[in-house]
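seq:
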Amino acid sequence: MTNEKELVAKTKKTIDTAKKKTTSSVKKSETKKKIVKTIAKKKTAVKKPTKKKTKKFSAYEGKTLVVVESPAKAKTLEKILGSKYRVLASIGHVRDLPKARLAIDVEHDFEPEYIKVRGKAELIRTLKGASDASQETLLASDPDREGEAIAWHLATLLEIDPKSKCRIKMHEITKSGVASAVVNPEEVDMDKVNAQQARRILDRLVGYQLSPLLWYKVQRGLSAGRVQSVALRIICEREDEIDKFIPEEYWLIDVDAESIDSAKRKYTLRLDKYKDKPLKITNVDQAKKIEQTIKSNQLTVDKFTAKKTAKSALPPFKTSTLQQEASRRCGFAPKRTMRIAQSLYEGVEIPGRGPTGLITYMRTDSLRIAPEAITSSRKYIEEVLGKNYLPSKPNEHTLKSKSQEGHEAIRATDPFITPDSIKGNLSPEQYKLYQLIWSRFVASQTADAKISRSTLICNSGDYSLKQSGIVVTFDGWGCLYPLGVKDTIIKPAIDGEKLKINNLVKEQKYTRPPARYLEAGLVKVLEEKGIGRPSTYAVIIDTLSTRRYVERGEEDRRLIPTKLGRIVNKFLVKHFSNLINENFTANMEEEFDKIESGTNQWRDVISTFWSGFKPNLDDVTKNAENMHPEPEYIGEKCPECNNDLILKHGRFGEFIACTGYPECKYTRKIVRTTGVKCPKCGEGELIRRKASKGKVKGRFFYGCSKYPDCDYIAWKNPKLQADQNISENLAEKENLETDI
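struct:
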């Protein structure tokens, strides 16, 4: 009995001790969490204490550590800076808002909760150890708002006072550009950081509140965004215009005429006006009547004029115009353009020069050119092109709208590094883009082109006919960059002379609906309307495609809103028209600019937005009707259960599934046949597929149905390109992974 009592007492004592330890452990854990949360909420970092030196980081002792974003940039910089420096890459952001939750404390002045980016714990430890061991740490993230925010987050994690001279900005990765940046460190620009925070927090509030609403009211897996949804609205509104468009008939009348003298000068005139007013011919009867009138009257020269004009050089590129021209001239999507430009900015190895950044920073809305760059470009023009091509003073290019004047335009870092001189050191796509940037930059400082414009106006009764001509008399900057002028020569005519009509041609036409947007066209519209920033356009378009809101036309690559995209747009515009519109988005960009200039407080901007957005959101969540998409029936029955088959979308694209799911799990892939035999093996049929990996992810291509036995692929529709050259088709094959 005594032994039992002792055993019970001993057991009770053990349990009580365990409880005390558990309670103590929980308290310690809660205390630790509070400390971590407090550190995460610190707005600035304190000066780091005495550095701990370890053998692991002994290579950094007595050196200056430079932290950049990109490993490629780090590699280039380390070669330029020499042995007194060490360069490490943060590989983008090291701290950010967590993806799994809102992480914005709307009840406490919109305080953001930043955490270390997942998967970067070891990298951060390396950066911290290297920074502690180094004599000095310089933060050299990209010279824009995003880069400034990255510098601030790095300063926080590395325990560097952001008010110290720890921040350097490199607008070009050249020896002179890097040397200038290193000897002129600055404080972290907190106004620029706050502008980035305001954008990030506002976008988080919009995206993380609207997206779940779309899941509930429309369909799971959808997303909305402050800029993304406005871009979708623009695309959908263009599609609405196309749907409502009614073609109208009109006629053109051209007259082939010649002089009646021995010179027999030839002219081609187009009917232009009636009694000095613009004329529109709307039907065949009207066209025939005008034809008879012109033929029955004498065709007489009313006026011939010729005047010389100058065509000024185009400005150097900024981000948006580079994306547009790279699309037009190289066929590059904005995302691809920015990726290639990044590699040119970060630098390539050039024999005799070493690692060299070929262009200045590619995310900019400025047209400013540094004085030393103007000097070197003028030297190149004079020495290589000749004095005739050198203007008397430098060409100036300015923007009407506000730009980041601290930045430069996108230009070649050295005009004497011509594209052809380093062609062997560049990939084909790098060469194409560098050629475009280099030629536009040098052309921007070259003399005006000289143009001669001529106009011939003739009369026949009350009708006026016109022919225009243009001739380049001096190419000027056009020797480097296309002028966009095609010579059309008109031989001089004498006022009052008679012309003989040789032929009259009537042509029936119909008005066409407005064209869908190409990616470059959408970029242009977004910029003109002040929506978003050039650096975000590529991501916006890519997101619209990833979410299946838009798709690209097979041949013309124009952006077409999907059925789902139009439903999402209809819902958002109906319930959030004050948010999903051009004016709101453009006004917010102005607010961010004011925050960057120090005239606005970011918390005030967010608070004003939230006070109007939250009540509307709550009302829509409670009262708005659902807009679930109707199933897309394909008109077939399931071979296993005889239920209807529908078109569905999954992680790997479209597929066909049974409406009897989950009882019936029948599915099959969609095979889009072309009816064209494979030109390589002659046995398989070409079918349309979508690239799922590599640089061309998401792009449609045509491959042989006998794959992998036959690896033939073509980018263009084989019905239109039946004689496609096999070797040309296989050029990009190493970048392609099929989804067979």
